[in-house]
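Summary of Year 1 activities. Much of the first year was spent building the evaluation harness for sequence design. The harness presents a backbone, in tokenized form, and records the residue chosen at every position. We chose the following record to illustrate the format because it has been used consistently in internal testing since the harness was completed.
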């Protein structure tokens, strides 16, 4: 198995891991973040354990996001070094914002479990709200930006079938627009009618991951990118 094939499998695995951890974390502490009384919910039996495990999964999510940027860098660099740096930087920024949001959630659990909710209800709610807003900024606004960068490179290079990056180029502005709406509406909860907006970008990431794991990058496109690399370096 060649290094390019191993890289493709690694990238696909990282993308799948981001979906597994993000979905699992929201299942675990979704009720906490949607509750109107965070403190009382967190003080309940088992709720704090689920929230903490969800926070751990978000840390793993952050690491997997960085992994996609690092693993894709040498591949994209052959096409466009500036785009490669941009994608890696944006993925790292997205991961950093998510990781920052984990800390106030853990602090909210500690307050609810350590001192109870009396006198701390407002602070606990504020800490949970910080987590909600970091998720809007990270996956909501920064992720569409790095998606557009990567999809544009993949569409130009032909490393994967055209339909895959087209899904990314369609989905990125939709997700960005929904989260801009949430930002200016001052609500971290999007209307249920907006849920369809995430379908193209979800399909982009899953189809890209599966294609890279099963098929890898297209051989002809890889050879072409390697042949043009010296000229680009000059």
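For this record, the design step produced the sequence shown next.
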């Amino acid at each position: 198995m060649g290094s390019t094939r191993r890289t493709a499998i690694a990238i696909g695995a990282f993308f799948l891991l981001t979906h597994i951890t993000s979905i699992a974390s929201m299942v675990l502490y979704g009720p906490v973040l949607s509750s109107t009384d965070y403190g009382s919910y967190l003080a309940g039996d088992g709720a704090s354990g689920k929230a903490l495990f969800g926070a751990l999964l978000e840390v793993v999510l952050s690491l997997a996001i960085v992994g996609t940027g690092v693993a894709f860098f040498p591949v994209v660099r052959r096409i466009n070094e500036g785009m490669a740096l941009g994608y890696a930087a944006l993925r790292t920024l997205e991961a950093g914002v998510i990781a920052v949001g984990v800390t106030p959630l853990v602090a909210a659990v500690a307050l609810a479990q350590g001192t109870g909710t009396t006198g701390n209800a407002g602070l606990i709610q504020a800490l949970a709200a910080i987590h909600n807003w970091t998720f809007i900024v990270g996956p909501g606004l920064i992720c569409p930006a790095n998606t557009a960068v990567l999809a544009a490179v993949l569409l130009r290079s032909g490393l994967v079938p055209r339909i895959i990056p087209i899904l990314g180029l369609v989905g990125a502005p939709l997700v960005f627009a929904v989260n801009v709406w949430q930002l200016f509406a001052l609500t971290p909860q999007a209307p249920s009618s907006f849920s369809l907006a995430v379908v193209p970008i979800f399909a982009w990431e899953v189809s890209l991951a599966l294609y890279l794991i099963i098929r890898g990058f297209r051989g002809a496109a890889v050879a072409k990118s390697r042949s043009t690399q010296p000229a680009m370096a000059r």
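The mean pLDDT is 84. Quantitative recovery figures across the full test set are reported in Table 2.
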